[in-house]
Amino acid sequence: MRVSPIVALLAAASLTASAPVPYPVVRPGIALRFPRDHGAHPLFRTEWWYVTGWLRTVDGADLGFQVTFFRSRPPTDPANPSRFAAGQVLFAHAALSDPRIGWLLHGERSARAGFGLAGAGTTDADVTIRDWRLRRYADGHWATQVAAPDFALALNFAPTKPPLPQGQGGFSRKGPQPDAASYYYSVPHLKVAGTVRRGGTSVAVTGEAWLDREWSSNYLQGDAQGWDWTGLNFDDGSALMAFRIRRKAGGTLWAGGSFRRADGTTTVLAPGDIVFRPLARWRSPVTGAVYPVKQALSVRLPDGVRRWVLTPLFAAQELDARRSGLPVYWEGAVRTAGGRGYLELTGYDRALTM
Amino acid sequence: MRAEPGLWSGRLALGWLIAGEWRFHPARFLVTAVAIAVGVALGFAVHLVNGSALASFDSAVRGVNGSADLSVKATSRLGFDERLYPRVALAAGVAEASPVVQLEARIGTARVTLLGLDILRAAAVTPTLIGVRPRGSDADGAAVFDEASVFLSRAALERSGAKLGAVVTAAANGRAVPLRIAGTLPGVADGSAVAVIDIAAAQWRFDRIGRLDRIDVKVADRPAADAALARMMPGDAVISTAQAQSLQGDALSRAYRVNLDMLALVALLTGGFLVYSAQSLSVVRRQRAFALLRTLGMPRGGVVAAVVAEGVAIGVIGSGIGLSAGYGLAWAAVHWLGGDLGAGYFRGAGAGLVFQPWAAIGFFAIGLLAAIAGSAVPARLAARAAPAAALKNAGDVLDPRQRVAWWPAAGLLIAGGVVSLLPPVAHLPLFGFAGMALLLAGGIAGVPWFARALLAPLARGAIRTVPRQLAIRHLHGAPGEAATALCGIVASTALMIAMATMVTSFRGAVDDWLGQVLSADLYMRTNAGASFDPATRTRLAATPGVARMAFGRQLALTIAPDRPAIALVARPQRGVEDPQFVLIARADALPTGLTPIWVSEPAQRLYRWNPGEVIRLPIGGGTRFAVAGVWRDYARQGGAVLIDEADYQRLTGDTGRDEASATLLPGSDAAAVTQRLRARVSPMLRGQVDITQPAVLRRFALTLFDRSFAVTYLLEAIAILVGLAGVAATMSAQTLAREREFGMLRHLGLTRGQLGAMLATEGAIVGLTGALAGIGLGLVLAQVLIHVINPQSFNWTMDTRIPVGTLVAVAAALTGAAAVTAVLAGRRATSRSAVQSVREDW
């Protein structure tokens, strides 16, 4: 479950727009087909390709990274013959977490699709915005190139496990209302190799990443404040995804997730199976938002309740993209006993509307 | 021990001398100080207003341009192909590129620049053009791609009178589109009326599919970007920078501003002459006092020091008053007339007054200098006089029998004539102004000779009445005094006559030209970029009562990014005589196979496009044309080019027309045809079409002309007033100084009436002489204005027309003013009893 704040923002636009645009509704009972579903689904309102992971440089330093491409279909008039018509808009964020720096380095791109400058292929994953790109090759491996002001990433991702459909075979509910849902699959345990360039120097890196793919037309309910999400790759080959959507009035509105063991058997988690409990908070000196950056996660599995403590690589992994008119969220590398992954915390400076 | 006591030790005497003079003649000092103040005030005010106008023009340009590093701009409002955009975006050295659709639009009655932007690109390149919704930046997203949302700058919001959230109708390019005001543009500078909508909506709603007007560029590597972009420029786009834009604004009005500055300096110069006249007389009057001090041991420099110190005092007081008055004047001018002083150069750019300390210091110094120079010249003359002789004789030091040299004046006049013929410097007629200064100096230097030449035959002739004889003998016998009085009169009259002649010639030429070109019966014109499509044109041409109808297109064409755009006018030229264009030159033979065009006179002068030459214009991908002729045009200072309508359509593919002239059938009623024409225009277009009759256009044009010369008229009037004040001051001072002479004349039996007649004659003769000399010199200066300054500044030529009425009036006013002042002063001087007046003599 990865709902980007940016996409949330654009989706909000549709609520106020004058002309109603018929978006497809997310319904249960579909079967994901690959590689088609790696590609874009342009009729849906929002979609994303979200890669997070841990990297290790040749000299043994740990880094966290995030590369995200969003696709949005704003509620524009399809009759507009202009090549600039914002029928499809693409956004991308990239961030690098280096504990020796102590804060997040990040960069972004955005463009309307068209003119050969930006686009998202529909037959397989291939998203580009100018010089930024994320694509999947015919041999099954993925690759991305991004260049931010302070760093550049050129990474290859080799799948070691099959995709993990979330929810009911890829239909993932987001709230008590049945139509608040998305199509959702993840690809855990991606083997990473590539380079990270900072300043004038490039270093070779290896690591492990997690890909989230999600598309939907109707996301959060009106009483949702934001969410906590985590995706964890365990060293034993198992993988855990868990999220909870927080209610504006406090408490949990909805929760969900899945646990896949090394042998491939998967347990889908219901709202009552997941508890996030804050252990330590960090106050952003920039925005004043207080994030529960260290959390205890309890998950009820058929063989009993398992508990993991999520410890951040460092606390200041807030992504402040207000410069480009976008909200603030926390997207950080976390480690836990026997595994590593990412934690996403949204709606902590103010409520996100969806 | 020093042989001669120093200046310092004489300071007490000097102090008395100056203070005494001030105590007894405060009005005279005040008048001279005011003369300086007027000059300084005018100069400073004009300079301030010009500076403020330029600053506001700059800020308006920045407001619309959003301060991009550089821009690719369409050369005309036809725009360029949007497929240039991805090439620019990916060009070497380019960090970001933001495509822009730019339209001149109206919201209600407010003129705004409507920009169609891709907010995602503009955010990185021109962030000042990003709209903000009233609830804060977090809600930005809601209207980002909404095709019906518009963001308005503060000025646009104020001028349209609409509220946030209201739905307004924006008219541009012949379309009227309802838009909801979603927010404001806080980054746009005050005074710029800008509206921003989504680029796709702009292309679609305002019929600009496939076209862009501008690509704003943020560069990563300037030299690389410049090189890469230069290679890919199509014929209908140029690379422009903020600097080039600023130069364009500067070039647009520079000549006008320099001319105003010069006019203001003229007023200052006249003030300087006034100081000179006043100080000369004051020195003459105090010659005996100076002589006494000299014999008592004051050094020669003491006299100079005393008079110059008075000059400094006059200068400091006058300049000080002038600066504050100038600031107030500038404020009022900007407030009431606008930053371009009504000349229409910077429409839509609201000006705020900016104080310029360096200019203030400069004008203070110039005022001070004029006062000191005006005092130093007579002071040196006085110091040269031998003390013993001066002690006895307070009369004129010039001997009337001595011949006055004519050659310095002739030399200066010739030099002035030669210098004015030199070519302009940086499009400014600097040598023309230098020539005028030399001519003026020559004219003034020649005044004593002229006065003598004029009076000699009168003095020789037999004059019957005693007062007249006395008057002429006095003037002839004391030529120095008369000459001093005349200098100021001649200087101010000459400049005033020169300006009046130039403006009369210009206005007459414009009036005649309007009469020639406005030969049709009705004129139609679209506003807000609307156009008549071919179907509408056919319908209009078939209107009952219309004999002929000619349609035209007029658009601004950028030849170079740092120069004002020229106007491209497309009208039917093949096989018809188009009376709208008065040819003043024609090519003998044209190169074959090239499209002919006709250039306006300013275009010919600005770009050196002479008949028969082959030129390239940035339309239709950069086409070569042959210049077939030159036509007269007083309307478009930046130049204009006329092309045949069919050629235009072939080259650009543009089928729209935005103006039309209709010739009516004999006997048809213009008002009725106007109504029928209006009825034949589609309802959407109806509100965007103006139909006018030539008389209205002519009146409008002349009103505009007078408006743009309003400040000239004002400055001229002030120069006249300063000149008249100078005459009055000089005449009265001279008369008062002759008290003893009047006493003696009374003793000899002259009645007071006869004395009055004598003074009136003297005054009238001085005034008339000054007027004649001033008018003669002014007509010469006018030739420089008309044939050098005007063509070099504004690039149009004209024939001289002499404002006979003004000349007669000026001569009469000067003669009358001099006579009346002399009589009034004489009445005071003769009021004491004759015995008393004579007794004062020793």
Low-confidence stretches of chain A: 1-19
Enumerate how many helices of chain A there are, as a single number.
Answer: 1
Q: What is the percentage of strand-forming residues of chain A?
A: over 45%
SSE order of chain A: HEEEEEEEEEEEEEEEEEEEEEEE
The biggest sheet of chain B amounts to: 10 strands, mixed
Mean pLDDT score of chain B, rounded? 81
Number of strands of chain B: 21
Largest interface: A-B, 32 and 31 residues
Mean pLDDT of chain A: 89
For the CA atoms, what is the radius of gyration of chain B?
A: 34 Å
- Report the span from N to C terminus of chain A: 14 Å
Please tally the β strands of chain A and state the result: 23
Q: What portion of residues of chain B belong to β-strands? A: 15-25%
Distance between the termini of chain B: 37 Å
CATH class of chain A: Mainly Beta
**Percent helix among the residues of chain B?**
55-70%
- Helix count of chain B, per DSSP? 28
Kindly report the oligomeric state of this protein: heterodimer
Task: Please give a structural write-up.
The complex is a heterodimer of chains A (354) and B (842). Helix content of chain A is 3%, strand content 54%. Chain A is mainly β. Chain A has a single domain (36-75, 86-346), classed as AttH-like fold (Beta Barrel), CATH 2.40.370.10. In chain A, strands 1, 2, 3, 4, 5, 6, 7, 8, 9, 10, 11, 12 and 13 form a 13-stranded antiparallel sheet that branches. In chain A, strands 14, 15, 16, 17, 18, 19, 20, 21, 22 and 23 form a 10-stranded antiparallel sheet that branches. In chain A, strand 1 and strand 2 form a beta hairpin. Mean pLDDT of chain A is 89; it is low at 1-19. With 842 residues, chain B is an alpha+beta fold. Mean pLDDT of chain B is 81; it is low at 1-5 and 136-140. Chain A binds chain B through residues 9-10, 12-13, 15-18, 74-77, 80-86, 89, 110-112, 115-117, 130, 322, 324-325, 327, 350, and chain B through 82-83, 85-86, 89-90, 99, 118, 120-121, 123, 130, 137-138, 140-148, 198-201, 203-204, 209-210.
